[in-house]
Amino acid sequence: MANLKLSLACWDYDRTRPLMDGRVKPHGIDLDIKVLRPRQSFQRMLDNQEFELSELSLASYTVLKARGNCPYVAVPVALSKIFRHSCIYVRRGSGITKPADLRGKRVGTSQWSSTGLCFMRGFLQHDFGILAQDMHWFMGGLNTFVEPPLIPLNLPKEIKLDFLDRGQTLEAMFEAGELDALLSLYIPNSFLKGAVHITRLFTNFKEFETDYYRRTRILPIMHTVVVREDVHRENPWVATSLYDAFCAAKAMAVDGLYDTDALHLTLPFLIDHVEEARRIFGKDFWAYGIEPNRPTWEAIGRFVHEQHLAPRVVTPEELFPVKVD
Q1: Which of 75, 229, 295, 299 could disulfide-pair with 243, CB 3.0 to 4.6 Å?
Q2: Helix, coil or strand: residue 113
Q3: Of 171, 199, 216, which closes a domain?
Q4: Based on the domain organization, do 96 and 184 belong to the same domain?
Q5: 128 and 239: one domain?
Q6: How many Å apart are CA 212 and CA 99, to the nearest integer?
């Protein structure tokens, strides 16, 4: 029987590259891989279900599952993992020196429903008692890229969310003193340039993130991988084949971190970071699957519900109905 030809949209990560260069091939599938930035593939998949397989925002997928109108079946692949304490920026002179000072402040974000923002609002609520309705929100492009909402929003009236007009950007408003803080998935240009008006809320963010993990066992997962529902219905074996292939590709990437026979620019620093990650998170610090990531899967189900994006809490078993590990 000929292999099934399926399109896959994802970014060029070290953990997906073996799929792209052919070192790993999913059993029974010929992949037509579209290398796209997450912000591109997410919107095209959510708007038009353009690809048969795709990297997808974990929060968007979770919300759609909770709303009962999800045309995808996910496999528990954690393509992107990152703590978000470092992503809260404040304007010097705004009076914000601790999380409690965010109350009543004007806060900019590029995507209200993004997974990163859900995790940021989640730890602000559970660790510091700061709710979304405690701030006045502004959504728009950080510099020039304007992002429409990934999924339809139906927020309660107590949440104040304004959308920027054309020509407005979050960084320009921040520099002009029209915003007090940025919860940003991307590093602002002004911060990269060392501008004096911007700083991180958590300057010692690594300590906060390490403590957060030790207390909660949550290592935030940003993106998962989905199979379009019609493909899954006709070929239910695809999910398992896809999961196995992503696991094999990730294993190759992890092995490559210790390739000291082929030195590259970051290797002297990278090995130290990898060894530290293993000390904190365990040997399989980039684990896929339900059980190794259960606290994180449970957290995103709870956070999207608490933040008025989902009508109910979704369990990990609902997120990943196909048994693959």
Answers
A1: 75
A2: coil
A3: 216
A4: yes
A5: no
A6: 15
